[in-house]
Amino acid sequence: MKIYTRQMDHSDVEKIVSIYNLVIEERIATFNVELIDSKSVKLWNEEGIVLVAEFDNEVIGFVRSYPYSSRICYHGISEFSIYIQKSARRYGVGDMLMQRFLELLEEEGKWKVISRVFPENVPSLNLLRKHGFREAGTLLRHASLDGVWRDVVIVERLLGTNEE
Q: Percentages helix, strand, coil for the chain, rounded to the nearest 5?
C-alpha cells in the first residue's frame, strides 16, 4: 500500500467532509454532532495546516491544525485533529500523516502541539505516544455526547528546541 501525504487542495474538500462526517456518526473521536459541509472545510487552510493522506488517487485521511488561542503569548501552540477513513485504519496512514505534520509545524516555528482524545480511543492514544506525545492529564466530564458525560485525555508534544 503506497500512501502519499500532501497539503490539502480544493479537490479534496468533499472527501474530507465525507471522512469527518462518518467519524461524527461513529462517536469515537469528536464531540461534534452536527455534520459539516464543504464551506467549513474550505476555511481550514486559513486556520493552519491541512495535510491529507492519499492512496490510489483517493484521500483516505487528514490531519489539521488550528490555533490554540488568539492570545499572542500562545502563537506558537497549535491544536490538531486527525481522522482516518474507517477502511484505511491500521495501515500506517496515521503514522505517515503525523510524521509529516509534525515536521510542518516545526517549519512554521510552532513550539507545542496539543489535542484532546477520548480515553477509549486507544488506537489514537497509541499513535500519539509513538510520535512523542505525552499525556498531560485527563479532563473529567469535559462535555456531554448524546447525553453521556465524556472525559478527555490532554496530549501534548513539544517541538523544536524550545530554547527561545
A: 35, 35, 30
Contact 48, 78 (CB under 8 A): yes
C-alpha 52/C-alpha 101 separation (Å) is 10
Phi, psi (deg, nearest 5) at residue 36: -100, 170
Separation between Cα atoms, residue 35 and residue 111, nearest integer Å: 32
Q: How far apart are CA 84 and CA 12, in angstroms?
A: 14
Enumerate the β-bridge partners of residue 94: none
Identify the structural domains of the chain with CATH numbers, from first to last. 4-158 (3.40.630.30)
Yes or no: say if 156 and 122 are a contact pair by the CB < 8 Å rule: no
Residue type, 83: Y
The verdict on pTM exceeding 0.85 is: yes
Residue 120 near residue 28, CB atoms below 8 Å: yes
Asked whether the beta carbons of 83 and 19 are under 8 A apart, the reply is yes
Binned at pLDDT 50, 70 and 90, residue 45 comes out as confident
Residue 134 · residue 157 · CB < 8 Å = yes
**97-139 residue pLDDT tens:** 999 999 999 999 999 999 999 999 999 999 999 999 999 999 9
Instruction: Give kind and range of the element (H or E) at residue 101.
Output: helix 93-107
